[in-house]
Amino acid sequence: MIYNNQNNLDLMQKFRKTGHFPHACLFYGEKGSGRKTLAEYFAKTLLCTGNSAPCGECSACRKLTKHVHPDFISVEHSGKLQGFSVETIRSVCRNAISAPNESNYKIYLFSDCDNISISAQNTLLKLTEEPPKHVVLLFTAVSKEAFLETMLSRMMQIPVNPCTPENCRNALLAKNFPPEKVSQAVQATGGTSVGMALQWLNSPEMQEISRQVKELTIALAKRQPYAVFQLLYQYEKSRPHVEMLLSLLLRQIRDALALKYQNQNAETIPIQLLGCETSSAALLSKYATTGKLFRMENAIDNAQNALQANVSLKLLLSALGGALLYKN
Ligand SMILES: [Zn+2]
Description:
Blueprint: H1 6-18, E1 24-28, H2 35-47, H3 59-65, E2 72-74, H4 86-97, E3 106-110, H5 118-129, E4 135-141, H6 149-152, E5 156-159, H7 165-174, H8 179-189, H9 194-202, H10 204-221, H11 225-233, H12 239-264, H13 278-287, H14 290-308, H15 313-325
Parallel strand pairs: 1-4, 1-5, 2-3, 3-4
């Protein structure tokens, strides 16, 4: 199910009807916003043999859903940063020349391109500039910045909207989760990704991390270094847990900033809080200055980059703790 992207769905239907469409597209937007789902939807509209594509029932649609369609190739990641090796790209370029196996197109999906190297892009440039008529190249990334200008100028750039908390709530209710749990999941994950909310509902670990983030927010508000480091170091063994911790903590700090802004302005501005726990965010907004909150936001941003670059978790967490607690 694709939420909050009707404009993009309409666009792809138009591509199918007119037969005119870009042969290289970049779907970009935040993690969990459904970039890959949209790219696959596009692939289905091109390969489906039913009357109203994607019909979901024809052989092509069924193969695509199972990821076994021979003309839809999900290009393999490699290396520490999960980019694409030059060798992989060369083999894509060789393979792209030959005709499709059983449809009119050959579609290549390069997912999560945020760490695509310059050499990989240079190797891909010629294919992107002059693809054979049957070739469609689909890319997904958090931001366009991962790409060289020469690549970007050859791609249609399609922003993907995250779902709204309301979309998220309805999607979870439709899956028969109890309303009370659904509210907690939407609150804890910000409600911008159904996938993340589902993960939260199905993972006691993630639920535990949101409880710990509340404790961490309180310890930061009260400036308790021992408690802050103790909370952070629990995660030194698990990269996915650190990723989750950082994304939840970032939302808490943004909420604290939003609350501060609201308190400083006489008229009441309706704000939407996205963090996992409001009372601790309110406490933090009371004790930290605006400048301090911006620096905390920056510290988390640095930690997220370090995580991408595969820095040791212990080092990352101790740098983060230091930066979050830094005096001014
Ligand atoms: Zn179909």
